Amino acid sequence: MVGIIGYGGYVPRYRITTKEIASVWNEDGERIANSLLVKEKSVPGLDEDTVTISVEAAKNAIRVANLDPEKIGAIYIGSESHPYVVKSSAAIVAETLGVTPFVMAADLEFACKAGTAGMQMCMGLVKSKMVDYGMAIGADTAQGRPNDALEYTAAAGGAAFIIGEKNTLADINHTCTFTTDTPDFWRREGEEFPRHAGRFTGEPAYFRHTLAAALKLMEEAGTKVGDYDYFVPHQPNGKFPLKLAKKLEIPKEKVMPGLVVTHIGNTYSASSPLGLVSVLDQAKPGDRILMLSYGSGSGSDAFDITVTDGITKARKNAVPLKRYLNDTERISYGVYAKFRKKIKGI
Amino acid sequence: MTGVSIIGVGMTKFGERWDKGLRDLMAEAGVKAILDAGVDGPDIDAVYGGCMSAGRLTGQEHIGALIADQSGLNPIPATRVEAACASGGLALREAILDIRAGEHDIVIAGGVEKMSDVAISQVATTLGGAADFEWESNFGATFPALYALLARRHMHEYATTEEQMAAVAVKNHKNGALNPYAQYQYKVTVEQVMNSAPVAEPLKLLDCSPVTDGAAAVILARNEVAKKYTDTPIKIISTAQASDALSLHDRASLTELKATQFAAKQAFEKAKLKPKDIDIAEVHDCFTIAEILAIEDLGFFKKGMGGKATVDGLTKRGGRVSVNTSGGLKACGHPVGATGIKQAVEVAWQLRGDAGKRQVDCEIGLTHNVGGTGATCVIHIMSR
Fold this sequence. Notes:
The structure holds 2 protein chains of 2 kinds. Chain A is an alpha/beta fold. Chain A has helices at about 20-25, 30-35, 50-65, 90-95, 115-125, 200-220, 240-245, 260-265, 270-280, 310-315, 320-325, 335-340, and strands at about 5-10, 15, 40-45, 70-80, 105-110, 135-140, 155-165, 170-180, 185, 195, 230-235, 290, 300-305, 330. Chain A has a 9-stranded mixed beta sheet, with helices on both faces. A 3-stranded mixed beta sheet of chain A has the order 3-2-14. In chain A, helix 1 (about 20-25) packs across helix 2 (about 30-35) and helix 3 (about 50-65) crosses helix 4. Chain A starts with a strand and ends in a 7-residue tail after the last helix. Chain B folds into 2 domains: about 5-120 and about 210-235, Peroxisomal Thiolase, Chain A, domain 1, CATH 3.40.47; about 130-210 and about 235-384, Peroxisomal Thiolase, Chain A, domain 1, CATH 3.40.47. Chain B has 14 helices and 12 strands.
């Protein structure tokens, strides 16, 4: 069965606390942190971007897969912060990894769900025998306008998955997608920061799409909520995933292992993928995972995943996500502004 | 004088109605009221629609004709009425005066507002138009800020406390929890109100009514005609309206709304009733302090005693006067132009005995709808 044969995550080490951001804008940091359930967020260093983050995550995935990179026949990078508007991130990453030249490669964009869209594309290519292995990466250095609500969560990180049919560490039993034209969050050509429609991003956007995708997935896969041991939803903040779990009647204990937003913020295209990395770092063979990505604009990819016996051996080569979550350096708003190129006139 | 009765009522669920537009909401409320009354379309003679700012909130003006068109009521006269947050109450009053004038027999009065289609900053700017734009809003005074001034002065003159204001929110949420049409169907505690985020001190988030989408409608008929349609007409026993300065700085007092006092005096005189005769009242609690001002200015309690009366439970369901059984603007929601009509719908349901879990024992009810910070007040008294 088609599934994951390698996985890896990466999160930049710099962190800025919600409190620090709030203090700049005369807001109550503790109240905001409690309301978003986000204590701090990751910040990419000056020399980090979606490409470097993708390379780090991809290397970790190749290590787990124990695979000759040349065997990878396709590479897709989903992001809404590709360093170039025109010039392929995927080509740079493929070259760096030694996957070139006979490889299908493309950059994808669907707000926060392009990474999981890449997973689905790789599944199709593998299932149809067009490639033996495909790599899907979700990575972002998300933008948040200063003093916008998004500034508290827009973070950076990446996750990579190698999809194949042999020696899987987790089988992807089923996937489906729910897509509609719902303009809840967008960034137009040439604009530096995205815009959003406030509370509209909640019920009619995130919740409607993730719920619909989840219900359709379970209907098609013939599963019930209770069949899943882990729940990994898109995590724009800590509150939405827990509210979504409540709506689906999934207990909090099944959400927490994959809830990484609380300490790294919303890593956009890497959000639910990093949640999946966190769960794969700790799951047992036979565990079943329900993953739901969400991309504004809007769509949700749902995945029904079962961890296989292969996980035990594969995980020996993994760089645990915890390493990135624990090895951190807190920075001030001033340094953050410098790193994120928000200081003008220099 | 020609007597007028409410023969049918209807409203949409109040809340963030992302899936419904302005015209969906108005049509839903109108159809529900028409079905409730059992009237046929051709029986309806005229429409009055309250709406504060559809133009700025949705881009759509010409609401009168839109209501008639969307409801399949062309070519009857359809008139939009605007008096900021009192637009609904005033639409109701205009409909009543129309029937009293002998011009029509059956008239619909509706109210609608679709507020969630634009950014919250635009909602705030739009609502600012209900105050004095040149002298207040233009200088940055938002509605919470203006009511915060009223609250501060009330605290200064009468030692009203923030906890007493919080008690208004607690009571109204308790009522809203029993109202399936309410935006917020859950209870809150005094602690939650006190710990909610400051908006304009001393007003906190849970002291403020929300941004809401919704519509409500009532069908009115000349009493002789009303009998043909229902055994339980709700009689309008008085309607009154008053005006005051738009800006707070042009008022002699910040602890009373003269428009409420004036309209109340007229309403009670015309009805030959006293405040103590009122069993239930839907009052304009756009902020918790506004309910305290209202129950004092309406004469239910002495000036300065509104906060204490609330804490003492005198305004709870079944209290001396049951205030805001719907949940009020605070918990039921405040789609600006619809609020005045929703108040009439709630009072009609209560007087008919159709208020479900929040039903109280009542004979006479009052609605109190305020525009701006008190520049317009419309009051109606109704009975079974």
